[in-house]
Design brief:
By secondary structure, this protein is of the alpha+beta class. The chain is 52% helix and 23% strand. It has seven helices and seven strands, in the order ααβααββαβββαβα.
């Protein structure tokens, strides 16, 4: 019970920042040992502030809980499809704070899996959320960073995934972008 309070987000039930940092550190250590890859997927709910401001924080909180469930389902679906055909894949789904959510994937070949997860998330978020009598359309912008391609530290991967997420927002929202060096320069 106490561990849940220390490592779980109280609103969504997802892993919190502390758990994410631990899981990502462990994934990076395993990747170095086994020559595996790690993907960090950073996503942000598009126009969440507007929804929160116009409908209230209780609706915003319910939207975050519902979004966390859709996100978790999309990740689990993608990971299960890989597990039935191949190697073990590690996963963590976390809420960093506000409307910032993160997924960590680890294993032998995470780049195609990360793309698949991003596509599944975008697909699931196309359906409006039904909350307290409101039909709410809430899309997501997603950034992806890969280890070792885009860094091999927790800080670098989170920063680069966040940078790629902002590039997704700038390119019209409701899409995903894989980090590139030119994004870091900008």
């Amino acid at each position: 019970m106490i561990q849940d309070l220390a490592y779980r987000d109280g609103l969504t039930g997802l892993a919190n920042r502390q758990q994410l940092n631990q899981d990502l550190s462990d994934a990076l250590a395993n990747a170095r040992r086994h020559k595996d890859q790690v993907a960090v997927i950073f996503l942000d709910l598009d126009q969440f502030k507007r929804i929160n401001d116009s409908l209230g924080h209780s609706i915003g909180d319910e939207l975050l809980r519902s979004a966390a469930m859709r996100l978790s389902a999309a990740v689990e679906e993608a990971v299960q499809s890989v597990r039935t055909h191949g190697p073990r894949v590690g996963q963590t789904v976390a809420r960093l704070g506000g409307d910032e959510l993160t997924v960590v994937l680890s294993g032998a070949d995470t780049k195609p899996l990360a793309r698949d997860v991003a596509e599944r998330i975008i697909h699931r978020f196309r359906e409006p959320f039904s909350i307290a009598g409101h039909s709410i359309v809430c899309t997501v912008s997603i950034g992806i960073a890969l280890c070792p391609d885009h860094g091999d530290t927790l800080e670098a991967l989170l920063k680069h995934a966040d940078t790629a997420m902002y590039a997704a927002k700038l390119s019209g929202r409701n899409n995903f972008q894989l980090f590139t060096a030119s994004m870091g320069e900008a």
